[in-house]
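fyi for ur records
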Amino acid sequence: MVEELDVIEDKKLGYCLGNVIKYVSRVAKKDKTKEVEDLKKARWYWAEEFMS
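which gave:
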């Protein structure tokens, strides 16, 4: 199993993209009621990275 932190550090993704990886990976692992919230957070960090 690939750990999110390993991917973030290996690819040197930085803060915003690291959080995108973190929140997207949670969708499959955590409480289903938090899926939309986690995807919204991932989208916010994506926008911060590429739209700012």
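DSSP finds three helices and no strands in the chain. thats all i got for now
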